[in-house]
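Weekly modeling sync, notes
Attendees: S.R. (lead), two postdocs, one rotation student

Agenda item 3: backlog of single-chain predictions. S.R. asked that every request posted to the team notebook include the full sequence so nobody has to chase files. The rotation student volunteered to paste the first one in as an example of the format we agreed on. Action items at the bottom.

Example entry:
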Amino acid sequence: MEDDVTDQDATEYEEMTEEVEESDAVDDELNTDEDTDQESATIWSRFGDSDLPTLPKMGAVIRAAKAGTEAGLPPEFATALAHAAVDPSELRSLLRRPTRVNIAGGVIEAIDLDLYVPGLVPLPTNNRTMERRVYPAAGAEGHAGPLTGPRSPSGETTTLWIEGEDVSHVQDETERAREFILANNNLRESIAARGIAMPVNVVFFELRHRDGEPSMPLLGTADGSSRITNAHYVLGLTDPQTHYHFPTDRDDYRRFIGSISEADPDALRPAARRRLIRQRNALITPARVFLRFSPTRGGYDYARAVNAFVGMLHVDPPRPWSQTGKLEAMAEAVLDVLRSADVLDDPVHDYLAGLLTPEQAEDEGLPIERDEQAAFVLAALLREQHRDLVERGIRDVTAKKSVSPGRRTDVIAELALRPTRSIATTLDAKDAERQRAERMRAAYLRCARMTRYATAEWKVTGRSPEKLLKAALEELRADPASSHADPTRWVNRLELAAIAQYHLTAWGGLRREAMGNTGADKRGPQQILEAMLRDEQGLRLLAQAITDGRAGTQPRRVTENGAFQRGVRDEYGSWHEDPAGKPMPIEDEWLRYEAYATGTTLPRPVTPPNETPRMKATRLKSQIGQYIEQINLDVDELANVEEAQGGPLLDKEGWAKPNELLNHLMNVHSQISYWARVAERQMTRPNG
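Predicted structure, as returned to the notebook:
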């Protein structure tokens, strides 16, 4: 009898998986070399000192492969699965009664069984590594870009495919992913001591090569790649063996497994015995194997459904990717939705995804200047008519029922910065260009939240800064008060702003709003940018930022007539106007407190006189909302603090003992959730 499993069931199941693995990883920090050398009886592991399952006879493997083809699996899938199965007879039985798992857009038939780790590979397009990928759009020498995929045919299918230029390209990308995972998600001591405790999710895919080399049929972990990568490390396996050698030399594959499963630990010297016990623990993993996908909703194929399933596990807790990685995964889902809805053709899709080299983009008539590349993404995806599709893509890979405007624009802005981030990852950590790229992210994402970007059909035209400025000035002079409701009266100014914000955020001319409970200007950089669009000096500053930024220099101040504002810097680093001095740089403080000052201080809200209870409740709710938004901004910034050697600092150091803080947050969450339920009951209560 088939079991029906809901999305929530699958998510809760994977949460248990990740919580156990996370607990293991924390325990690793307490381990010393002596700990891992202890007798296996003192450390829980799946098999301990008991015998491992014996290597299946080839006759049993062949019968299991035949059962797979009879169940409708492609012969390559059936063969790979039969060789990976620890118990082929169990596989034959399970193929007759698969479990049905409901996921986004369809149903997956799956089976649960033990598999040999050497018969699996981490999916080489693992989203955990997205923030470190180098995309072709970066134009970086010696980088072929990420592998394509996973992709799948439409309709019912059993197979995904991933494609690279050639074998060398595949090996480069898999090694890059392996190094990233081993450095950032170290589970190897946990796995060596205890094994893989909970199931990994396995799919069948073809690894294709554009140079004509034969495809490799492989079993890959759609979720669980970190565990399999670390298990391979414990087993001493590397990419050529797992991706190319074992699938084509099953005899050597079986000899490798037999050398571990059939060895007697008691017959070995202590050092060899300890090594064997570690390998025994890493040799076998529980797995859920996805056999077949059947769509139940239009626009979904197998690849999109699997990406949505994995995103549900990692974009939100319990074990999230980095902030950049989460936004990148959502951006990929958004592009998939837009392409399936025929909003994007293939060249534009690949351009937005960063998959076209500058030369290929130029051949397609698409912008190649880095600032225009980013602006093109904003113009294409921030449009109001795409809002529903963008939100659908984000919901596909999150557990959220709705998408906030800030989340929507952050995803699009993160995609806009993909070429910039790609080139930055190839540079030294101390390189000035890399440091600018890393610093600009938070402010750039905020700038993209300027509401006007979504209200007009503006586009990137490729005009020079001078021509763009001329058109923007004419637009402003036609409506000096900027009060005209017609959005077409803003298209030139919006194009100018979208290109200029790239340079202003990179050089610090626009920064994120001030933190803390002070009287500092709390306006976001998008609000400063909006103010600059309303006068001639602002437009000239934006044009100058493009000119200077493209020349590799810090944007300089100009007057409303276009002349440089000159000055001298004092011993404290502040600039003072002096006609005989140097052109002064555009700085965030100057824009906020001099050029576009509010004219008022922004102190903490005070209690108004004669405040009624309802007024007080409204005021306090507003304050709490502001505080929570500020916490969200601070956590976002904290997640992207990078250490000198590269990589998020907090991902390596963590946050020691935040228990009291978490208790406060949980209490607040509980109270607000209760009030939300009260409001819902009030809304549904019948009148009268």
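Discussion: group reviewed the output briefly. The first helix runs from residue 7 to 28.
Action items: rotation student to repeat for the remaining queue; S.R. to check formatting next week.
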